Every structure is written in C-alpha cells, then in structure tokens.
# Entry
Amino acid sequence: MPTVPILEPHRGALQRVLGADADGVDALNLHGDYTYLSSGYYASLDAELAGERMLPTPEDALDAYVVPIAADKARRAGIAVPDVTLVTDRFPAPPFVAWPVNPFSVKGELILDDAALAARRGGLTYAGKYAVACQKLPGDYRLDTARVVVGRCTVPEFADLAAASFRTLRLPAMRLRVVVSAEAYLLSAALPLPFASLSDEELGWLEEVGTWRG
# Structure
C-alpha cells in the first residue's frame, strides 16, 4: 500500500479549527481520498484497529461521500443544504444535480433539461438497481467548488462553510461542491482532494496544525 501522509496535531492548533472534538484525535490522515477500499480509507481502518484515534475514522469517510447521509449531518449541524430526493425511477423536473448512491462512484451529474434526463436515466441508477440523490437547484444558482484543508479555504466567501463542514464531516482534506444562490451557500457534496494536489499555501496550513509523522 502506498505511504499515506499522517500529521500528528498540536492540540491547541487543532482545537481552534475543530473545537472540542480535537481532544479525541491522535492523528490526521491527509491522503485526501477516503473512498471505500482506497489507500486513504485503509489507513484510517488500520489506525482504528490499532487503537489510534485518527481523523477521519472509517465511518466518517464512508458517511461523508454518501450525499443523503452527509446532507443529514450537515442539516443537523446548521449547515444549509439543497433539498434532496432519493429516486430510482421517478426523477424530479430538471434542473437538478444527481449524485450516485452506490459503491462505484462519487461523481455527480448536472441534469439541465428533459433531454439530458432521458439520456442518463438508466445510467444514473444502473438500470434501476441503485438510488440517486437528486438536489433541486434554485433559479439563480451557480455551482462552485471550495477546496478545504483542516477547515480552511483560500476563497473568503466560503470560509464559514469550510470550517463548519470540517467540524461536521471530519475530512481533513476535501473538495466541497457548493450551490450558490442569492440567499445561501448550500453544501451539495464532499469529494476527494488528493494530497498530491495541495498547494504550498494549503501545505503551510497543515504545518501550522501539526507535525508530520515519519
């Protein structure tokens, strides 16, 4: 298995971004892709089996990438999210973002009109075998992406959402898909942010929070 970058956090620094939950964290897994059966997922699983309190836990990782579960967690934490409808056949009227609820993909699709829905209906559900989480889009929406590393983001307008999402979803590195409208920033989904893609500024944030292991 490839080496996974592990950060041992400075307690006070992590508390400033994670809050009281930082007290239960021994290490941060910075692989950035925690999808099921990935190296990042196994690093957290191995740590849990060894009795180490690593962020994310395997449960954190699995929950964060399943849109209906992540949306429920976010809503309970006071984070605004789009309305989600789970379907296998009767899709809502476009436009909406469709997120898979299956073991094979975390890639969402923007469905803008009836023609796009007709073309993708069977593929989205694997011929009706798996549910799809459909997020209805407001009339004035734009879709954006926020890169989040230990709760911080380079884009000021997403700073509050980045911090709240880290506290809630507990992924040290992630990309957030955000539905932006005049009224709110809506958390659409969390996606992998591989360690190799981190910028010098993002790596600097990590060095403020802890010390690299090994």
Q: What stands out?
A: The CA atoms of residues 147 and 175 lie 5 Å apart. The chain has a mean pLDDT of 93.
